[in-house]
Specification:
alpha/beta; seven-stranded mixed beta sheet; five-stranded parallel beta sheet; 15 helices; 22 strands
């Protein structure tokens, strides 16, 4: 079993306590262990970040860009090693892990380019002989809390823009999947990131939560995870001047209209629903089908699902990987049991994979007979489970999409341009797709949801600057 160190103050360190990391394809033997930091270790990480920020905010943007470009090169050079660890600790297929690794490098390269640009606007001033402009500045030390489902790309999405704009970070990777985040930190460290700018806290959340969230030097927190945890963080910050960027739950819907290309729609929905075993925040978990094509589409859908190959992510033949932990597997199975008790019909799947008892496998599942009142239609399952309903027309489909506490992503499949644009206007979601998947939003595209799916600060693209920078207005009098 490998023993890894964590990055704090520019040094790779370890403690006397450890956290074992397991492969969800077979949880019997740990594959690695990482330090279990204490509350005092967390406070030291903030000490380092405070000092790192003081130097990094004054570092030339061109030097920041150089570090990022070199880190991206190192990640691409190490892609096989990193992807293997992403698969080993998370369970996703090697193809998915490889794509995630390369996308992490994309984030670094994109924000290396953005770091070279000036962030500001030249403004007219009513006073004679005045020139006024705005400029963006880093906000300080930011706490980054990332989830287990995308253990490399989510840290890249969060850390790249905030570091590129001159902030420092304390980064808490998910306890289940710390190896991927440590790979990202090592690439930045090896590329020459100054000491203290990035500090990685590996530890058990229950033991370090107070030290993580209550440090007075925190200027912002960016979090991806459940609504329950996100709302707890938000309440904890209620009386503090701390920015909060939350990417929370989703119950994403795909709409199939009667004029859609049904085989293509079925393939796209299955890709969006069952990639990473449904453990994507943008995964399609609801399908709303116009009644005249419901039977035909469901038959195509079930056939596509039946063609999936369940197995360990390290097997090139696998197209449906295990869930990321025994806890997540059991949660999904409990949701399925409740759905059946409430009257849903299992068209395919619906059970644990008994052929692999030591892994976290759940069969890909399609449910019919689902009503809007059922929990499986309204609550996030976060697994390989897809619920299907028929509706009478376009208006009913849009109503069904919007009848949700969430608003992250939605898709419509249609050949009608009017219907496509109406859907784009009327769907209450931050991400809307037409004739393509609800997943797969590139690094330069603003990303984030409405309602209970997120907060006012988006991720990705230039839009993330609203979170990671503050605006200063400067007026210069150049006359006599």
């Amino acid at each position: 079993m490998r023993t890894l160190e964590t990055l704090s103050g520019g040094e790779w360190t370890r403690t006397g306590e450890w956290i074992d990391v397991h492969d969800p394809a077979d949880v019997r033997t740990p594959l690695a262990r990482v330090p279990a930091l204490s509350a005092k270790d967390v406070t030291r990480a903030y000490d380092h970040a405070e000092r790192g920020f003081a130097a990094w905010k004054r570092t030339s943007p061109f030097e920041r860009a150089r570090v990022f470009t070199e880190a991206a090169r190192l990640i691409r050079e190490r892609v096989e090693e990193i992807a293997a660890d992403v698969t080993a600790e998370n369970g996703k297929t090697l193809a998915e892990a490889t794509g995630e690794t390369l996308k992490a490098a994309d984030f670094l390269e994109y924000y290396a380019g953005l770091a070279r640009q000036g962030y500001g606007t030249l403004l007219h001033d009513v006073r004679p002989h005045h020139r006024t402009h705005t400029q963006r500045e880093p906000i300080g030390v930011i706490l980054v809390i990332s989830p287990w489902n995308d253990p490399l790309i989510t840290p890249a999405r969060k850390l790249a823009p905030l570091l590129a704009t001159g902030n420092a970070a304390v980064f808490k990777p998910a306890t289940e999947t710390p190896l991927s985040g440590l790979h990202f930190a090592r690439a930045l460290h090896d590329a020459g990131l100054p000491a203290g700018v990035l500090n990685v806290v590996t530890g058990r959340t229950a033991e370090i939560e107070e030290a993580l969230l209550d440090d007075p030097r925190i200027a912002g927190i960016t979090f991806t995870g459940s609504n329950a945890v996100g709302n707890r963080i938000r309440r904890r910050l209620a009386d503090r001047n701390v920015r909060f960027q939350g990417e929370l739950g989703g119950k994403n819907a795909s709409v199939v209209l009667r004029d859609a290309a049904l085989p293509a729609a079925a393939k796209a929905v299955v890709a969006a629903s069952f990639g990473q075993a449904g453990q994507r925040c943008t995964a399609t978990s609801r399908v709303i089908v116009e009644r005249p094509v419901y039977d035909e589409f469901v038959a195509l859908l079930v056939a596509e699902v039946a063609a999936l190959t369940v197995g360990p992510g390290s097997d090139p033949a696998t197209t449906l990987c295990p869930l990321s932990s025994p806890k997540q597997r059991d949660s999904v199975l409990a949701d399925l049991g409740r759905a059946v008790e409430q009257g849903a019909t299992v068209l395919t799947g619906g059970r644990a994979d008994t052929e692999r008892p030591h892994g976290c496998y759940v069969q890909p599942t399609v449910l019919a007979g689902v009503t809007p009142e059922m929990a499986v239609w309204r609550e996030e399952v976060f697994g390989p489970v897809l619920a299907v309903r028929a509706v009478d027309d376009f208006d009913a489909a849009v109503d069904a999409v919007n009848d949700s506490a969430f608003g992250l992503a939605a898709a419509v499949f249609t050949r009608d341009l009017t219907a496509a644009y109406r859907f784009a206007d009327e769907a209450e979601c931050g991400q809307v797709a037409v004739n393509t998947t609800t997943t797969g939003w590139d690094v330069h595209l603003p990303f984030g949801g409405f309602h209970d799916s997120g907060t006012g600060y988006k991720e990705q693209g230039e839009e993330v600057l609203r979170f990671s920078t503050r605006v200063k207005t400067v007026a210069v009098h150049f006359g006599a």
